Amino acid sequence: MGTTLAEKLWSSHLVRKGEDGAPDIIYIDLHMCHEVTSPQAFEGLRLAGRQVRRPDLTIATEDHNTPTLDIDLPIADETSRKQVHKLRENAAEFGVRIHSLGDADQGIVHVVGPQLGLTMPGMTVVCGDSHTSTHGAFGALAFGIGTSEVEHVLATQTLPLKPFKTMAINVNGTLPKGSTAKDIILAVIAKIGTGGGQGYVLEYRGDAIRALSMEARMTICNMSIEAGARAGLIAPDETTWDYVKGRPHAPEGEDWDAAVDYWRTLVTDDDAVFDTEVDLDASDLEPFITWGTNPGQGLPLSASVPNPEDFADESDRVAAANALEYMGLTPGTPFREISVDTVFLGSCTNGRIEDLRAAAAIIKGRTKADSVRMLVVPGSARVRLQAEAEGLDQVFKDFGAEWRNAGCSMCLGMNPDQLRPQERSASTSNRNFEGRQGKGGRTHLVSPLVAAATAVRGTLSSPDDLVDAPAALA
Amino acid sequence: MEKFTTHTGIGVPLRRSNVDTDQIIPAVYLKRITRTGFEDALFAAWKGDPEFVLNQPAYTHGSVLVAGPDFGTGSSREHAVWALKDYGFAVVIASRFADIFRGNSGKQGLVAAQVSQENVELLWKLLETEPGKEITVSLEDRTVTCGELTVPFEIDDYVRWRLMEGLDDIGLTLQHEEDITAFEATRAAWRPKTLPAKHLPSVEIEAARPVS
After folding, report:
1. What was the ipTM of the complex prediction?
2. Nearest C-alpha of chain B: how many angstroms from A186?
3. Which of A126, A226, A348, A442 sits CB 3.0–4.6 Å from A424 for a disulfide?
4. Alpha carbon of B212: minimum distance to chain A alpha carbons (Å)
């Protein structure tokens, strides 16, 4: 019997097979760090008198609590400033490469790794951040870890792990105009639930996935964790090598040829068997939004706020009722009538250049609804530079949006970019948890296209709702 | 890490599913660089509600949390485990745990005991009927006992052994350092390294300013 891609990645990184119920020891090819989940890990090393085993496989960026305004000034918030400085001190002490605020390679770890060409097919990638699953888009086994595991990887460049189960997510058909990778993944999560992926590595397959760009594939793999999965991945193909080739750390010459020869073997064998399979038809997929307080509480934009009484399962019913109370929504209200205060375009889910281009194409030549504040936060400083080179910054500014510096920003509101209590957002980020974007804030997760159209109309909208059909969508 | 065999303490019924790690500890508390002192941050958004279970005197000093399914979803923040431990919790009981949270718990000596939802409901009833009632969790026997009720729980064999022995993972892995070195010798030359650093030319990044 053949093996799945996830199993191939596992076996090719097996340092030692676990005996008598002990976990396997798996080698880690790339470890990314940021300021929030690493200080206690470095402190642990220091207390134990240990070094970083492979600084040459480790990289740090500042992203989670960095401001997106006035980045040339000292960070105003004292605890944030201390934490960022602690990362700088740790990087210097242990010899770890760091990209600090103001550096052209600073940005969200999951945007920076791929753009530097550090993320490649066939790797194991970890970071103390659950959205590390993003890198699975390259056919890498990539997953988030806790701080104890961060310390473990720093000290040993390995992790003790129990094998995962495998799940195929087959997405076939042609994605309709106006629907995006974000809508695919929101639909997948709504289908299997926030716990549906627990214990699994998801492999996204099918012609709808093959047709996606690398950046769109990253959006999908990014939110695997929202279905409870540790990792999500997509077998690499021409799209993948075209993206990697020529990047700063991409192999060159004979190394490149050797790498591509190897990458071609990174597929699930035809006769391999997944532990579970799930099918989704992309051809009738509408723009999706979330209405509740977990990412599984999503529905097509054309629907209405659900009635908790309609949920068969008691725990779902209670969760829906709690969510609607928190979100301030009434059952039966069409989603398109829900007014939004803030539109957030950014995050490791949708803060890459294609996302900014897609949103800019919708708003170009239009006017922002007066009632809406729009924040545009590029995923990295390079994304910002690229957008500026293309004139997208001017499109956003002319529209009335705020053009910010790179970071995680309002996705999790650790920096000053937060919602106020009861303020409602349409956000291209990944989590609509209570208080995620600011205490009492109400989040609807959306695609960049829906975010842009919503900023124009002031209510949850898709580009189809705009009066004059936007040329860019044709 | 301290060895864990059994624990007895007040049971706290938390009737919520999908308690994500943003609820356990909001991001604003993650800026600290210490490993202790997170007890004030636990369930911070709910603490203001007098009805919240931990605000009821009978449960305030609880150490065994009995929660709904899919506990610990979302962010990988280990601070969620630190906050639970710092508050005084030694055990969390639920019918389903998020993978990363479960892993983090095992590293920090917090027992994540998986009990069927049916038995979680029985425990909730007992704890609500008699607030302040104690629960005994035996890692040795893999049982949860509350009054007359004793139910089994599941936990990974290896994690259980490690918790009972109080062993630290890094030390265990470093016993196999020769295997790591041998593996490193087989890695292909094209595998990327972060050092020496390569990148596109440095460019000045203009600082965005607040709009008036």
Report:
1. 0.94
2. 15
3. A442
4. 11
Query: What's the pTM value of the predicted model, to 2 decimals?
Result: 0.96
Q: If you write DSSP's letter for every residue of A450-466 in order, what string do you get?
A: HHHHHHHHSBS--GGGS
Q: What are the beta bridge partners of residue A32?
A: A59, A127
Which of B29, B73, B81 is best to mutate for the A interface (most A CBs within 10 A)?
B73
Q: Strands of A231-233's sheet, edge to edge?
A: A231-233, A200-205, A165-172, A276-281
CA distances from A444 to A363, B16, B18 (A): 20, 21, 17
SS3 content of chain A, % helix, strand, coil (to 5): 40, 20, 45
Distances from the Cα of A130 to the Cα of A26, A230, A408, B73, angstroms: 18, 8, 13, 10
- Could you say which residues from 229 to 288 on chain A have a Cβ atom under 8 Å away from some Cβ of chain B? 229-230, 248-251, 255-256, 258-259, 262
B208:A68 CB<8 A: yes
What confidence tens digit (pLDDT) does each residue in A302-338 have?
999 999 999 998 889 999 999 999 999 999 999 999 9
d(CA B4, CA B108): 11
Q: How far apart are CA B150 and CA A343, in angstroms?
A: 51
| Residue B104 Cα, gap to closest chain A Cα (Å) | 6
Q: What's the start-to-end Cα distance of chain A, in Å?
A: 46
Q: Within an 8 Å CB–CB cutoff, is residue B164 touching chain A?
A: no
- When pLDDT is cut at 50, 70 and 90, the band that residue A469 belongs to is low
Using a CB–CB cutoff of 8 Å, tell me whether A58 touches chain B: yes
Rounded CA-CA distance A123/A411 in Å is 27
C-alpha A228: how far from chain center? 14
pLDDT at residue A474 tops 60: no
CA dihedral (A411, A112, B169, B71) in degrees, to 10, reads: 20
In the three-class reduction of DSSP (H, G, I as helix; E, B as strand; rest coil), residue B25 is classed as coil
Residue A352: closest CA among A375, A384, A374: A384
In the stretch 137-166 of chain A, residues with CB closer than 8 A to chain B read 144-149, 151-152, 155-158, 160, 162
Contact status, residue B63 vs residue B14, Cβ threshold 8 Å: no
H or E element that contains A99: strand A97-99
Contact B192 A151 (CB under 8 A): no
Q: How many residues does chain B have?
A: 212
